């Protein structure tokens, strides 16, 4: 093999290794920025046929209805605690910040944050549902399922 061919081979190998490294880094970055959507019931009992539950420390989005009477605001800070429910369960959410104007008890919301031990979500962002025309299909289906079971059904089991 002459020197010119060797140089081209080394160049081709270096380009392929660089491309492989770039693709690996991009995929790793995208994986760490994905927030999967769950309902309260899916957090408690699992999702899909394998009943996969999110692990504490996992970033996620959780959508459900704000349980009437569950909103507790700290008078000295912007900290808010509330419960989200769906047809299968109730979870606690804590958030520090200004809530959206459309945030109300009995209203659908999506909280984006980190799952903590005890099935509690430390939300970094809370989005209030405003119009079904802009709701993703999976969120809309979950919200329709939420209306099948009233929040009073949880008071004895999950208070």
Compact overview of the structure:
This protein is of the alpha+beta class.
Determine the N-to-C terminus distance.
77 Å
Number of strands: 7
Radius of gyration: 22 Å
* Helical/strand content category: alpha+beta
Q: Which shape, going by the Cα principal axes? A: elongated
Q: Using the 3D structure, state the CATH architecture of the largest domain.
A: Beta Barrel
CATH topology-level fold name of the largest domain:
OB fold (Dihydrolipoamide Acetyltransferase, E2P)
**Looking at this structure, what is the CATH superfamily of the largest domain?**
Nucleic acid-binding proteins
SS summary, helix count: 4
Strand order, main sheet: write it out.
2-4-5-7-6
Number of domains: 2
CATH class of the largest domain, please?
Answer: Mainly Beta
Largest sheet: 5 strands, mixed, barrel
Strand content: 25-35%
Mean pLDDT across all amino acids: 82
List low-pLDDT spans. Answer: none
What is the H/E string? HEHEEEEEEHH
Helix content estimate: 25-40%
Pfam families: CcmE
Organism: Franconibacter pulveris
Extracellular side: 30-159
Subcellular location: Cell inner membrane; Cell membrane
